[in-house]
Amino acid sequence: MSNHVYEYHLDIRKDKLCPFKVKMVSNYSVYSCNWHENIEIIYVTEGSGKMQYGNKELDFTAGEIIVVNSGELHRLYSDKDINYYYLLIDESFCAENGISTVNYFFTPKFQSEKSKSLYQKVVDKYAEYEKSHSKLRVAMLRMAVLELLIDICENHVELEITNNSVNCEKYIKKAIGYIEHHYNQTITLETLANECGITKHHLAREFKKYTGQTIITHLNKTRCKNAEVCLDEGMSVTETAMECGFESISYFSRTYKKLIGHSPSLNKK
User: Are 126 and 141 in contact (CB under 8 A)?
Assistant: First the structure.
């Protein structure tokens, strides 16, 4: 699985009030294989094709809604152009409204006029949020997203069937989730293993098998991705290194250049 990409979604996390992203994708026939903690809701408006969804393959066509569950490997592909919206919802918004994306296993694909109407409402409110100066635009967008989430939770949930393979994946995703939320702290292999409830040797082996990289590499990538945001927001290199969990400026600079492709000082320029 080393060619599968983990998406960080730092851009939506930056907006504390509206941690969402809605985008229309037109005339696109290939969707790169990826996975992420946040749920993704796709509304296909034109065309048809197939979707790799975990170890399954789903057919889809215009008018259908696809819900990508937290941590689910997925990829859209088609011989013809397809048009679709995708909605990313940061897990923090779900959690603060009492919706655990880990506990819910949503129906991967369905047709529903009500859900499509609520989805379109989110699209409209997101456009207003980006362009309008209304004092209520934030509240209206949050309400529209929550209405869609509630509809899907009430009407389009399946029971999750666990097995040893799924349990193994859950350990890895739990470790990744811990890194996402504690990257600016000291994290050891022992810490992660204790969080996951397995031995450190088993965790290290399965993490490399599942992600194609070591835990240290993933931790450093997460720190560097967040460091990019800090630097772009005006933090100094020294402040950024400390903020993102690096113990020394020299190690931060070497690691950043290796993983991002240039020194952190170039972001400042």
Answer: yes
